[in-house]
Design a protein that fits this description.
Layout (H helix, E strand, L loop, with lengths): L9 H18 L4 H18 L5 H35 L9 H52 L24 H25 L6 H32 L3
Helix pairs in contact: 1-2, 1-5, 2-4, 2-5, 3-4, 4-5, 4-6, 5-6
């Protein structure tokens, strides 16, 4: 029997994101990173309420699609049986006269098969569309977080650093503040990856799973860059 530890749930992720938003707001209430944290909370709330994770809604769509499939199959069978009975009662004398009847029967079967296939794929296609829309927004949010730490270069805290005319604006952050800022960026990227994984929690769609894997790889690479900056910061502290 499965346990809750075997399944990623939206509630703990959302609670962690809200807590991180509060922590960022306490230290950097006027910076854009706080707004990014707020957007992440809103995104996770949308994931929680979307058809991707709303299992009851998805089950209802799947149920009605199966009901319609059964109705189409039953109607097709009834029509074919009635056509066979009518043909048996008024059987054409010539073989060529059977061709229109056979063609009509084949057309009915083809159209019924297309309708059944369409209805069978409706729940999965709806889930894929909703998941991909959320995943594209998640990937964009990861890039936004990356942009926020892009100019936060701890090398500029070294005593040997010399500004040029093309240098970025001063950091206006102490080493301790910069470390907190970079750490928050890393945590945001981790939660972005968790939000992406949540989109695929109930999916076996290869496109969705590949997109989630791409986002996870992306956020890991971005986090690695942040921790390299933190390592440089620890070295620069000695000279600050």
């Amino acid at each position: 029997m499965g346990t809750s530890l075997e399944k990623l749930r939206a509630e703990p992720i959302l609670a962690t994101a809200r807590r991180l938003q509060e922590r960022i707001g306490a230290r950097f209430p006027d910076r854009g990173l706080y707004r990014v944290a707020s957007e992440l909370v809103e995104l996770i709330e949308e994931v929680e309420a979307s058809p991707v994770t709303a299992h009851g809604r998805l089950r209802m769509v799947r149920f009605w699609s199966r009901v319609l499939m059964a109705a189409i199959v039953a109607a097709t069978v009834v029509l074919i049986v009635l056509a066979i009975k009518d043909s048996a009662m008024d059987a054409p004398d010539e073989t060529a006269e059977w061709l229109p009847l056979i063609e009509s029967g084949i057309n009915d079967l083809v159209f019924a098969a297309i309708a059944v296939w369409f209805l069978w794929s409706v729940p999965e296609r709806l889930q894929r569309q909703a998941a991909l829309e959320l995943l594209f927004r998640t990937r964009s949010l990861a890039h936004i977080v990356d942009m926020h730490h892009l100019t936060k270069d701890p090398e500029r805290l070294r005593s040997t650093f010399r500004r040029t005319g093309a240098s970025a604006d001063p950091l206006e952050l102490t080493p301790d503040q910069l470390e907190h800022y970079l750490d928050y960026c890393s945590e945001l990227l981790s939660l972005v990856a968790k939000a992406a994984a949540l989109c695929a929690e109930e999916s076996q769609d290869s496109v969705v799973l590949d997109t989630v894997s791409t986002i996870e790889t992306l956020t890991v690479g971005m986090s690695r860059e942040i921790w390299q900056k933190i390592s440089i910061l620890n070295e620069a502290r000695k000279e600050y």
